[in-house]
Amino acid sequence: MNLPAVESGRRIRLHNPLVSTLLAALLAGLVLLPLLGHKLLTNWDEGIYAEVSREMLSGSWLVPSWNHQPWFEKPPLMLWITAGFFRTFGVNEFCARAGSAFSGIAIVALLHGWLAHKQQAAAAWLSTVMLLATFGFLHVCRVGEMDVLLSLGCCVALCGLSAVEEGELWGWYLFWGGFAIAAMTKGGASIVLLFTVLLLALIERWNVRRFGKDSCWGCLLFLLLVLPWHLYMSVRFGQGFLREYVGFHVLARASAPLEGHITHGWYYLWVLLVSTPPFVLLYPFALAAAVRRAELRVWAIFALVVVGFFTLVQTRLPHYIAPSYPAFAVLTGLYLAHADGAWLTRRHSRRAWVVLAGMAISLYVAGALLTGGGRKRLHSPLEANGRTVPDGREPATLLRGIFHGGQGPPGPVLTWWEGTDRSIATSVFYSGRQVQQVLPGTPSRDAPFDRYTFAPVALDTVVVPEPRILLLDRNLVEQIPDEFVYQRIATGRAMEAGWIRRRP
To answer: How far lies 46's CA from each of 39, 103, 280, 306, in Å?
Structure first.
């Protein structure tokens, strides 16, 4: 690919792209890995994915399960990676997030190496620094979710598509291989790659020759990597799998705002504003410059497709547009390197470089401070409609203390708390046991049942003569029926845990 060269009488040539790429990967590791496991897992996706991965160690690697029940929400690639970390290094917070962090390092290395190989030294380093300074990218890389591995698959596919655009048809293997990574990570979200290649083909007016045997063999590779697991799950679980995997988590999310995530159509413009300062100010110029250059158009189309597609999806969350961050970094790095190439290649005094660095750092700090409040709200336990989501750290702390090292009483953990919107995800993970929500009486049929937040049974149907662990709000202790014996063993600010059993 003949990317726009940065010149000042001569073209910049990186002496050793491999060394440069290794240094970029090292920088990414220094940014993303420290203190990765110092916080408890959050009470939704992080806790759910970590528990699904943990249950693979003692269950099936083909059939994901959560709370010891089949789980059909996502494909298993990231879950397999996390389970591999758990098996090798133990079940802990660092390993639960390691898949995301190392995927982020791989993205930095891939894009830096790709640009350096194209003799774009300045663009490679500008893109690397901007990506590692992008708050949205840093956030998704340091949580145990699936969006960074999805983004890595998209970056591999885009590098392949860029090669195809150059007439190097072996790029189809990279495209379909990256597409397979994305599809086996987050299913329906990978469709943005299909839209990208279709739009690129239409805009560039590709002829049939561009879709030659390499494309067919690459597509076959994609099917061999993606179809077996999906066919296995469809045959084994039938409509139950398809109803949840496709019906609820793809079609329902696309057509209606679920789980309280009610947002406006301009939501992702706000996400970009608070998650990518001050680089977001350069995005329109970088996109405009890239659209005019065929060799960069694929990255611009992809970034616009991601933001546009997920804007049309009615359930909107900030991490959905995570795959656009690397594309924006590539485009902006190339734009700056091309626009200021003569200045970058000219010899300047140390004072000039200090002034430039000072101005860049000042602008970055100012942008970070001005958008800090919005960013905090974006990633706080508040849903988009303003409703507070109860924090899961206290029950996680209590249960981790009780079941430290995998020890603790046998049988399920019982939970009882007020309200119907408190997730039990971290309770399952930190207890290492099945968790069952309970109520002292028969649950109302009118209650909004959900296996993560509210799926209780009557207390007297699960408490047996042998003691069980009960985790509950402290103000509910007095409401424990007289037919049960309760003994406190751990207490927190608003919750406590204890033994409960039936009276003899």
So the answer is: 11, 16, 28, 23
Q: Which of 1-15, 95-109, 201-215, 344-358 has the lowest mean pLDDT?
A: 1-15
Asked if residues 479 and 470 have their Cβ atoms less than 8 Å apart, the reply is no
188: which 2 tokens?
């329906």
Q: Which two tokens stand for residue 180?
A: 């397979």
For residue 314, how far is the Cα from the chain centroid?
Answer: 18
Question: pLDDT by residue (tens digit) across 216-247?
Answer: 999 999 999 999 999 999 999 999 999 999 98
Name the packing angle between helices 324-339 and 283-291 (round to 10°). 80
Q: Is 407 exposed, middle or buried (0-12, 13-18, 19+ CB in 10 A)?
A: exposed
pTM above 0.85, yes or no: yes
Tell me the β-bridge partners of 471: 415, 497
Measure the CA–CA gap between 397 and 426, rounded to whole angstroms. 9
What is the sign, positive or negative, of the torsion defined by CA atoms of 80, 84, 87, 90? negative
Q: Tell me the mean pLDDT in the region 424-431.
A: 92
> Which tens digits make up the pLDDT trace of 376-407?
888 775 544 445 556 678 899 999 888 876 66
CB-CB contact of 323 with 306 (8 Å): yes
